[in-house]
Amino acid sequence: MATKANNTNLDAALEEANKDLGNSAPVVEEPKGSVEAVSLQKYNQLELKRKKLVSVYSEEEKVPVTISPFYAPYLGRVVRESVNGIFVDVPADGKTYKINKTHAGHIIAKIKRIDAMLEHQKRMGDTANNLEYAPGELHL
User: Fold this and answer.
1) How far apart are CA 49 and CA 2, in angstroms?
2) pLDDT of 74-116, one tens digit each?
């Protein structure tokens, strides 16, 4: 029961965000065959595909994601992830949020890349142990 309420809240939030961003497709009747009518028809088709993707992602399995405030300097206070034009924002405040599996995978990949970068910097900065006896001996 709680998941349906969460999905309803997510759907309502997405629709409100779309209204705020002005992403709703204008419905204007144009004479068939004009360049404007063709482009408007293509735009409406793409907008329909995007709305279907929103429903696909909102029905997807939810995964708990926690972003430590430690990552805020690298990712921002609110981490925004976009997959196929669908955005999900997760605050970097140390709290756990349930988001769909696709976006969660991308956010976790971002965090792993930052961890790898910091580990590399740590190894490079450890000059006491960076002694090599032959050129190319160390692989930092």
Assistant:
1) 28
2) 999 999 999 988 899 999 999 999 999 999 999 999 999 999 9
H/E element, 14? helix 2-21
Please report, for the chain, the start and end positions of each structural domain, with discontinuous segments joined by +: 1-59, 61-127
- pLDDT (tens digit per residue) in 28-60: 554 567 888 889 999 999 989 988 988 899 899
The angle at the Cα of 108, spanning 104 to 109, to the nearest 5 degrees, equals: 115
62 exposure class (CB count in 10 Å sphere: 0-12, 13-18, 19+): middle
Q: CB neighbours (10 Å) of residue 82?
A: 10
Which residues are CB-contacts of 14 (< 8 A; sequence separation ≥ 6)?
A: 54, 58
Q: Which residue has the tokens 């002694």?
A: 131
